[in-house]
Amino acid sequence: MSFTDDELDQELHRLFEDDRLALPARPDADMAVLAGVKRIRRRRAMLSGVAGASAVAAVLVVGFTLTANQGSDQQPPSGLGPVATSSSSKPTSSTKDSSPPEPPPPTSEAPEPPAEPEQPPPATSTTETRSPGPSARVLGLPLSANTAIGPTGLGSLQLGMTAEAAIETGHLGPDAQPPGAGCQTYSVYGDSGASVAMTSGGLQAITAGPGNRTPEGVGVGSAKQQVVDAYPGLADQGSTASATVPGNTSGMYTFQFDGPDGSVVSVRLALSSSAC
Amino acid sequence: MAQPAAPAGKLTRAVDGGVEGPECALVRGYQVGEVADFGEFVRTALPGLLRYGHALTGNPHDAADLVQTVLEKVGSRWTMVQRKTGDPLAYIRRSMANAHISRWRRTRKENLVADIPDAVGPQSPDSFENEPLWQALRELPPRQRAVVVLRYYEGLSEAEIAESLGVSQGTVKSQASKAMGSLRVKLDGHYEGRGEQ
User: Fold this and answer.
1) Of A13, A100, A207, which has the smallest distance from its Cβ to B18's Cβ?
2) How far apart are CA A44 and CA B190, in angstroms?
3) Do the chains contact at B197 and A1, CB–CB below 8 Å?
4) Which pLDDT score is estimated for B126?
5) Which site among B72, B118, B150 would you substitute to test the A interface, given the most A Cβ atoms closer than 10 Å to its Cβ?
6) How many Cβ pairs within 8 Å bridge chains A and B?
7) Does B142 lie in the same domain as B73?
8) Domain-located, residue B14
């Protein structure tokens, strides 16, 4: 038998209405989230509030920016999971220092700007010493989802720029920290879905979000033929292909396809010398 | 280990047992109020968001991870998100779709086949995980899957999907048609393989 459009429609509706799609939240899931919120705010306060004080040097870098994590397929256990794993202590343990939220006092109408927490940073323990650098007052600045990728960068994020300069653009968000050893991936602030990879040597590579296109008009969703046409020197390896960047001899595009003849699922612009 | 589905009431009760009374909120002022407000939002929205995350990611672990990551970020700017977006829930769902697509691209390239880490625990081996359609969905590239979820789960129009994902309507159309094509092929293959009519 062959599925008709209608039958497939119905099946999809049925599947997405299925009760079994529900996931049991951990009873303290909300606390795990609030603890995470607190961590972010504390770190932000640390970066913006006490700039200049050397105490800022203690910065929690480790592993929090989940989306900026790279190089590990094992994602940290989640705090919300339908789960009773004892190993998911990451969010739970930090709920200790998070004040339990009140029952909802109707204060949300308060028209003040978002308040930053005032607690000083915990200048202790599992922290790594880093200079806060010039990024201490960076404000997150979203990058338009339609910004062109290439020939030399994505908006003001340019291949080869220093990590500090990249962070200072604000496009890596208010919480971005300079990279440690190796390549580190940063989500571009906002909903563009783009990301960049940096080392201490600077900005190495940019991965396009769904709306970013190369100046030659290639982006996620483009047909492979379009890529072939746009980049005559394309080195085609089947599901991936690379091309030198018109107008930038030190850059390289890498495209991934959802199959040897599929459409583009990923566009990456990197320094051709980059190891990232 | 098995953790029964926690009804919303249970979540709420667990937190109502907190130690601070309303007077503390007054003392500590606005910030606590905002946190409490967001906490309440999380408790209410969590079941729906986890379910949605499950539909988006195809497995419980990634679902929980995605929801937590997005909620933490949103919570850290809650007042602004509320003020600027008008509909925080829609904003969160949109962020989840985008975060999923981009994260998958970064971290999941190597293991396209959903691997459910041990940490996810007692997922009953019930038939849902074995639903042919669920499995077929899982094999879709993330953007195609997102388009299907936004259309059938969220009931969004093509234009709305395009806006949510920051792509053109043409892309939505082509992704949807590719997705439906592969779903159909996979389902047909499945049922033929089982000799069913």
Assistant:
1) A100
2) 51
3) yes
4) 53
5) B72
6) 295
7) no
8) no
Among candidates A88, A133, A200, A64, which has minimal Cα distance to B76?
A64
In the listed set B94, B118, B142, which residue is the last one of a domain according to the structure? B118
**8 Å CB contact of B50 and A25:** yes
Domains (range + CATH), chain A: 29-133 (no CATH), 138-271 (2.60.460)
Q: Which domain holds residue B109?
A: 20-118
Give the minimum alpha-carbon distance from B71 to chain A in angstroms, rounded to a whole number: 7
ipTM, 2 dp: 0.72
- Mean pLDDT, consecutive 10-residue stretches, chain A (276 aa), reads 83 92 87 89 76 42 36 46 41 38 37 39 40 51 86 94 90 85 85 89 92 93 90 84 89 88 90 85
Question: Tens of pLDDT along A252-275?
Answer: 999 988 878 888 989 999 998 887
Residues in chain A: 276
CB B100 within 8 A of CB B57: yes
Q: How far apart are CA B186 and CA B136, in angstroms?
A: 6
A229 touches chain B (CB under 8 A): no
Q: How far is CA A203 from CA A154, A178, A217, B111, in A?
A: 11, 11, 23, 27
Domains held by chain B: number: 2
Half-sphere CA count of B82, side-chain side, radius 13 A: 16
| Domain edge (last residue) among B61, B93, B118 | B118
pLDDT at B4: 43
The reply to whether residue A265 touches residue B82, judged by beta carbons under 8 angstroms, is: no
A32 touching chain B per CB within 8 A: yes
Cα-Cα end-to-end distance for chain A: 48
- Chain B nearest-CA distance from A55, in A, is 23
Q: What DSSP character marks residue A129?
A: E
Question: Chain B window 27-66: which residues touch A at a Cβ cutoff of 8 Å?
Answer: 28-40, 42-43, 46-47, 50-51, 53-55, 60-65
| Amino acid found at A237 | Q
DSSP code for A189: S
Closest partner residue to A105 among B22, B102, B128, by Cβ?
Answer: B22
Does some domain include residue B13?
Answer: no
Q: A112: which DSSP letter?
A: S
